Amino acid sequence: MRSLRTGLSLASLATGVAMLGALLFTAPAAHAADPPLRDLADAKSKVIGTAVTGSKLTGTYGEIAGREFNSLTPGNAMKWGSVEPTRGSFNWAEADQIVDFAEAHGQQVRGHTLVWHSQNPGWLTNGTWTSAQLSQLLNDHIALEVGRYKGRLAAWDVVNEPFNEDGTYRQTLWYNGLGVDYIAQALTAARAADPAARLYINDYNVEGVNAKSTALYNLVRSLQERGVPIDGVGLQAHLIVGQVPSSVQQNIQRFADLGLDVAITELDIRMQLPADSAKLTQQAADYRAVMNACVAVARCTGVTVWGFTDSDSWIPDTFPGQGAATPYDENYAPKPAYHAIAESLGGGGSRPTDGCTATYSVGSQWNTGFTGQVRIACSGAALSSWKVGWTFGAGQQITQAWNASCTQSGAAVTCSNASYNGTVPDGGSVTFGFNGSWSGSNPVPTITLG
Ligand code: XIL
User: From which residue to which does the signal peptide run (predicted)?
Assistant: First the structure.
């Protein structure tokens, strides 16, 4: 990441500057800065969480993870295959790192996950076990892992994905070896190892009222009747743009009515690539719908997104051709979905939304360099600070900026106001400029304000 100092520069204006006709791109509806999502969520006593990858928790990724979220879920680091790749030989490094990061940033941790059919170590899945041995393995694993983080985790996804789509039990190592009681056994072991952690069963395609969520409902009711420890259900919410079930709030409510907590644990909303503004607008509406359903039910503890940036999402690998499923794009620019989350958490009430625009233009251009200008103008709205971003499409590089503080990382540029020009009054505008280098072509990028 290069930092470019603010300040007027007359350097590098080569002779023979050619004035070009104004090349303009105006950003659509603009958004001024909201408070971080976690502040909005805290004010509503809700969780806004994200899955994270431990090795990425530095730089911009770490800054956003720490600033915007009040809860972290390790995306993979606590899975059995990660922590015990070889029998009896443990690797806690990434899990420890995430828990330490969370504590340093005043965040909760959601443990994920103890008992699952997937991402288990080869020695476990390839072994031949009697039910007594399986039972011992399960108890020991839970005692060790839950015990290691005792008192430090808010919740555990104890059992993950136990159901088929039709509501029958998934045939897994655990179900086949121990019967349905593997679920009660796992919950009981987890409670013994950390009485303070909230214990969940977590699954996907259980967001709306359907056969699978009804099977989950019947399971948790029977566990409660038997006195098995169960505190909540996790609705993963790996959704598709335009396909949020209409019964999400009703479904959350029926679990809440059992005296259970409900958490949206893995929200992402994927689309066929490439993304375009119509899909991103629909995605924002979909994020808002899920958020609103949780905000509306007191016992819905909150929402965790399964990765906050499109550069750290499992979707493109798992669903070829699909992606753009998270609230930030690959360059860490917040998408419309981010603003929808903020608004659902009560942000945006006093901020101007529509009414300010950012316009990028190339002023002059010569053999290797050019001068660019960005104008931020408001009408019917005003800003007290501003930030714009764009991604260069042809390898352009900013060399110097004035009247703004700009950073460029790869192709991604972010510029924010200088100390003296954050205010854009209603009916007024602020302009800043920069010099850049180019070769081949110098296309005008799409600029976003907010
Ligand atoms: C995914 C991870 O995000 C990927 O990195 C990994 O390759 C596969 O698993 N349901 C879950 C999560 O409960 O653990 C999964 O996470 C996504 C689906």
Answer: 1-32
Q: What is the pLDDT of residue 252?
A: 98
In this structure, the answer to whether residues 299 and 429 fall within a common structural domain is no
Does residue 122 lie within any of the structural domains? yes
Q: Do 210 and 111 share a structural domain?
A: yes
Active site residues: 266
Preceding amide of 274 cis, omega within 30:
yes
CA atoms within 13 A on the CB side of 196: 9
- 231 found inside a domain: yes
**207 Cβ inside 6 Å of ligand 1:** no
- Per cent of the chain over pLDDT 90 is 83
Q: Quick one: 331 and 372 in the same domain?
A: no
* CATH number of the domain bearing residue 209: 3.20.20.80
Report residue 349's pLDDT band, with 50, 70 and 90 as the boundaries. low
Same domain (yes/no): 250, 374 = no
Residue 140 lies in a domain: yes
Contact status, residue 356 vs residue 429, Cβ threshold 8 Å: no
Cα 117 → chain centroid: 24
What is the extent of the structural domain holding 395?
23-28+353-449
Length of the chain: 450
The span from the CA of 236 to the CA of 75, in Å, is 13
Alpha carbon distance 336, 290 (integer Å): 15
Query: Which residues, other chains included, contact 286 with Cβ-Cβ below 8 Å and sequence gap of 6+?
Result: 239, 241, 242, 243, 244, 269, 337
Q: Which residue has the higher pLDDT, 20 or 360?
A: 360
- State if residue 75 touches ligand 1 by the CB under 6 angstroms criterion: yes
Number of domains within the chain: 2
Ligand 1: which of 119, 204, 317 to mutate, judged by most atoms within 8 Å of the beta carbon? 119
In this predicted model, what pLDDT tens digit does every residue of 215-239 receive, in sequence order? 999 999 999 999 999 999 999 999 9
User: Is pLDDT above 80 for 450?
Assistant: no
* Cross-strand partners of 439: 441
Note whether 234 and 142 are same-domain residues: yes
Distance 51 CA to ligand 1 centre (A): 10
